[in-house]
Amino acid sequence: MAKAEIFGGVCGFTTVVTAEKSGRGNILLDIASGCPAFKDLGDDLKEVDGMVCAFSKVGEGPIYDACRIHCKHGACPVPMGIVKAVEVAAGLALPRDATVILSK
Question: What pLDDT score does 55 carry?
Answer without folding.
Answer: 96
